[in-house]
Amino acid sequence: MSDNKDTYTTGFGAPVDDDQNSKTAGSPGPVLMQDVHLLEKLGHFNRERIPERVVHAKGAGAHGYFEVTADVTKYTKAKFLSEVGKKTDVFIRFSTVGGEKGSADAERDPRGFALKFYTEEGNYDMTGNNTPVFFIRDPLKFPDFIHTQKRNPETNLKDADMFWDFLSLTPESIHQVTILFSDRGTPRTFRNMNGYSSHTYKWYNEKGEYYWVKYHFKTEQHIQNFARDDATKMKGEDPDHATRDLFDAIARGDFPSWRLEMQIMTPEQAKEYRFDPFDVTKVWFHADFPPMTIGRMVLDKNPENYFAEVEQAAFSPANFVPGIAASPDKMLQGRLFAYHDTHLHRLGPNYHLLPINSPKATKVNYYQRDGAMNFSDNGGGAPNYYPNSFGGPEPQPGAAEPPFEVEGTADRHPYTHPNDDFFQAGELYRRVMTDEDRTNLVGNITTHLVKAEKRIQLRQSAVFYKADPEYGSRVAEGLGLDVKEVEQLAAMSQEERAKATAG
Ligand code: NDP
Hints:
By secondary structure, the protein is an alpha+beta fold. The protein contains 15 helices and ten strands. The chain binds NADPH dihydro-nicotinamide-adenine-dinucleotide phosphate (NDP).
């Protein structure tokens, strides 16, 4: 092979003679079609952008490792978790959710916390957030929810009416809304926040016994948040402040780390728990299921190329390894489809072959072939069908998730667990928050909700009131609403309240 590393070449390896002067007929002269270098360069430039992620468009990523610090073999047979001291390479992408690719890092928004473990049994992804719960618990509602957090179809502006109309008509969102409008909705940096699986997952061991689990990655840099005015200031001063902070910290050797704590529930406990353990708008109280520390993640290497490693990174909660599986959480079930599907659209059918997405500690052996941009050896001359008698790869029955029972009627079942949607948000307000947290929360809400129509302000204040009467009253007072009217709306059923505040 020729050593041409100092030679500027075309995309096809031929030397470029001049990159400053287009080839023309005479001087200045019209440009000639036969300047093939110019045509190739402009053509490629026109195609530089790939579709922006519909959600989580703005992000930053880093490489690192995960180390096991406690024996969890009783709960899972996942090989990367099989030994204390075992290390696995990881790649993480932090992000905001609602903004476009150029939006400010200091926006009030949940933060994505998407992790890829490059295990010897294939890649395992955890697509978490910095909040332990979510706004909705049925994937049918997801596109509508996201539309309301994005731009008005007529004005192309963020729209407080859309935002609060949907949320106030979807009271299951109150827990996440309370977290979002606390100062945790504007984390100081990506390093100063926790990451949660939010969803419940299943772990199963060598014997086929299973457990329900939740992941909590707790920051070792301490939680730090912006107060409202500081976040607004930062958006103007440095819209990329969190991206910059992560890159700079790793570059100077100040490697951020997170402790992995697990909550673990037996199937029997799940049947009796006072909250539906698969409802992603709820947490499992720590007193009921004390988190146990089982590992530590350290980020110690910056990407060398943002597009190749961060923009093209593709995570999916459907990427499981033996020992870890899905739970019946409906939002999770929807995401099992949606992530892979969006990557097929955004990156193409062979996105899993890109270096950042392909396994590093094992090989891909399968019968899938072809497709756009298949830059692997495409299976060479090996059989492309199964079964075959030419020595192709065989399924491994031992990798199966143990069988589990399902029962019931096929129908559009709502969540019917006998607990309400307001209690946990109320507990956060009453029991966890300090006086300062509560004051900031109310101020963060009123400065945003005041931009919505009054009837929507009333309806949403009633939802806060249902979480905690003081909470709802303070929001209503901050908006200059009649607290008695809010109290009356709070006493109504959801349907009556929607009717009483219809447009
Ligand atoms: P605890 O009272 O034992 O602990 C409070 C938890 O709340 C801590 O995990 C703390 O995180 C977190 N927290 C503190 N301020 C905020 C905030 N503004 N937004 C979100 N989380 C915050 O928790 P319980 O299990 O008894 O649950 C009480 C309430 O705490 C829940 O209703 C829920 O709103 C919230 N919570 C519970 C979690 C859980 O998994 N049980 C997880 C996170 C929040 P940290 O330790 O990092 O400071």
